[in-house]
Amino acid sequence: MASSFTVGDKFRERVRVLLENETSVKPGLREALEAVREQSTLSFKEARKLHRLLEENGYPVCLHELMEDSTLYLPKYEKPPRNPQLVARLEKIKAKLANEEYKRITRNVNPQELNNHGTLADFGRQVRSVKAVVVTVFNFLVTVVAAFACAYLGSQYIFTETTSRVISAVIAASVVGLAELYVLVRTMEGELGEL
Q: Is the Metal-binding keyword given for this protein (predicted)?
């Protein structure tokens, strides 16, 4: 907040002229003018006192004419030092808030999770399930191929033509495949019923 003026060159020059030209300047006013001439700033209180002295002594110089090139002196704001106890307490509060925020963000995170679809135990169950399906499909294919091979080789004693042998092998493999599928479906229904 401004509480003084920074005096300019015109102010100093007019005070110097006033002191040199006026021989009848009273001693109190002369001392005040000389003290003001040496300063670079002039407080509002001193400016009022100087104005009052000039009026009392009958000088036609107005204060606003003296202060024409002067500016308001605005002291630089100095930030007060922070209390170390307050700083330590604020740091503690910031750390606590950051920790609470971290806990809030990670409260539903399970470190044993592999991905968003479940835990590692769920993954193991899925692998076992896939393994069982692969073994079942492989067993089905081997059974159908073996039935075809047996029917093809066994039909050579009944049929002499290759076409008849292939047709009989395909029929036998289809019957065995359908029977295998029936058993597979019944087994899967039983497993699904247990779940």
A: no
